[in-house]
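Standup notes
- DV: blocked on the single-chain target, sequence here:
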Amino acid sequence: MNHTPISGKHICLCPKSKSDAPQDYIWGKDAELAALNGLPPIKGTFVQYVTQFKHTQDDIRPSRMWLSIKSISDGRHIGNCTIYDIDWDNSEAQVGITIGDRRYWGQGYGEDAFKTLVGYAFHHMGMRRLHLKTQEQNMRAIKCFQKCGFTPCGNLLKANITYILMQLCLEDYVNGQLRSILASPVISVKNKI
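- DV (later): unblocked, structure below
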C-alpha cells in the first residue's frame, strides 16, 4: 500500500504511524478490548510499548498490512484494522478490526471501516478469499462481519476460548455488491407537460 489514505463513507484507513502509539497503548491496556481480541492486556510501560511499536513499524513484511482507522469528520484515530497472513500464491488473507474508541461504537464506523478494508483487499490487492476469527460471544463483531458479507465456516477452540471462523470469497463479495446495487431505490423523474 502506498501512503495515500483509503477512504470510506465516514472513515479513512491510513498506514500506522508513531503518532498512533499513545492511543494504541491505552486500548492495549484496556482489559475489555484485549479480551474481545482474545489477548491479555498490555502489562509493560509506555516506553516498552513504543520500542515494540517502532520495531513492528520497521518490520515491513509483505504478509501484513496494519492500518489505523481515522474518522473523516474530526480526524480522530478511532481504531485499527489489519490484513495479515497474506498468502499471495493463493490470493487469500486474514482480516481483523478493532474500534478502540468507545464513543464510535454502534454508529456504523466499524462496518464502514471493515467494508473499506475488504474492498481494498479484493479490488487492489487481488485477494480471492478473506477469513477471520472472532469470539462467539462478540455479537457486535459477528453482526458487523455478516453485514459485510462474511459467513460462518467453522469453530476454533483456543486457550479455552471458542472462536467463530468466518470467510468471504471474491465471487460472493461481487454478488453481494450487485444485489446491493439492484436493491437500491430507482429515482424516477416525471416529465411535466
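- Follow-up: The domain at 6-128 is CATH 3.40.630.30 (Aminopeptidase).
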